[in-house]
Amino acid sequence: MPPRRWVLLIERLRRQHRIDQLLAQHVAELAAAGHVPARPRAIVAALRQGRLSAFVASAHGMAVGLLCWSARDGRGAVQLLLAAPPDRELVAGALLEAAVPALANAGARQIVHPLRQAEPEPFRRAFARAGFAEVRVEKLTHERPAAVPVPAVPDGYCLADWQESYADEVAGIFQMLPRDPSDAILWPDLATPAGALDLVRTLAGEASFVATLDFRSLQDFGSLLPIVGYVLAQRCRDGSGRIGELGVAPAHQGRGLGKALLTAAMHALARAGAASVWLTVLASNAPAAGLYASLGFRPTDEQSVFLWPG
Ligand SMILES: CC(C)(COP(=O)(O)OP(=O)(O)OC[C@H]1O[C@@H](n2cnc3c(N)ncnc32)[C@H](O)[C@@H]1OP(=O)(O)O)[C@@H](O)C(=O)NCCC(=O)NCCS
């Protein structure tokens, strides 16, 4: 008997397409791999309400792939990409081929997708072929924050507890620091001073500090105490501590301020009851990764984000 031809049809999702089985299979796979799956009901509701658009891939009348997307203010997102075996790369690739021009037509100048798949390799290859770049983000955790030795604050500097009135100045440094270009796509708030200020206010918690010049240097700056570094940290609902942001102004880097700020935040989080402290960092950020490794942070999770254009 000649082999049955596998005809893949890609079209906009319509009412008669049955995607329940596909969603259920995806949820089961993710749960088996220890990931937190997206809620199928929330996806279906978003599709019904028009908050998401979608393409479906079908073969022999059965849904074998689904791509949900949205575009707003020039930013596009592939919110969900499902492809059933046996040829996941082919199905995911065909869906992306249809979705990228649709997103561009809807005004998206950038497209972001966080990879959430139990079997990621076929999806990686499909994204690469569709012109996306992969950015690796690592979650690092420290299990004994209180045991980290506290280094002396470098000469000429001092640390101060966070105050709301520091927010503007810290947002200024925040925006000034050279960053990986993918940062701006992943955190679009950074693009504007108002967005950066908002982000600083959101990330600052009870374990945040700033580094300033020592009062002995004050005569050079009138009565202002210029802020030269910051760490923004907070307790999470699950009881862990999170380092949200850490930065040292370029002229003051390499003197031990980053280490002093981070250690101060780790101890403050431990005093507030956090058993562990975690943060996320771009795998390409060598200075930050070096600092975290030297203090005993270890990788506990890894996520890939795909960016278009690559
Ligand atoms: C990451 C950052 C806060 C480090 O601040 P810093 O004050 O320069 O760091 P320190 O002087 O305290 O250095 C502490 C350790 O970090 C590591 N480190 C610092 N700069 C480094 C570099 N350029 N390359 C490799 N490792 C580096 C080293 O392990 C160093 O320890 P050592 O001096 O004993 O070798 C700073 O580079 C920065 O502001 N970067 C931009 C913002 C950013 O990326 N923040 C992190 C987001 S997750």
Describe this structure in words.
The structure is a single chain. This protein has helices at 20-32, 40-48, 88-105, 121-129, 167-176, 181-186, 193-203, 257-271, 286-294, and strands at 8-12, 53-59, 62-72, 75-83, 110-114, 133-142, 157-161, 209-213, 227-235, 241-248, 277-282, 298-308. The chain is an alpha+beta fold. The chain folds into two domains: 8-131, Gcn5-related N-acetyltransferase (GNAT) (Aminopeptidase, 3-Layer(aba) Sandwich); 140-304, 3-Layer(aba) Sandwich (Aminopeptidase), CATH 3.40.630.30. A twelve-stranded mixed beta sheet has the order 1-2-3-4-5-12-6-11-10-9-8-7, with helices on both faces.
Portion in strands: 25-35%
Distance between the termini: 44 Å
Range of helix content: 25-40%
In the CATH scheme, the class of the largest domain would be: Alpha Beta
Output the strand order for the largest sheet: 1-2-3-4-5-12-6-11-10-9-8-7
| Structural class by helix and strand composition | alpha+beta
Any idea how many domains? 2
CATH superfamily of the largest domain: Gcn5-related N-acetyltransferase (GNAT)
The distinct bound ligands, ions and cofactors come out as: coenzyme A
CATH fold-level topology of the largest domain: Aminopeptidase
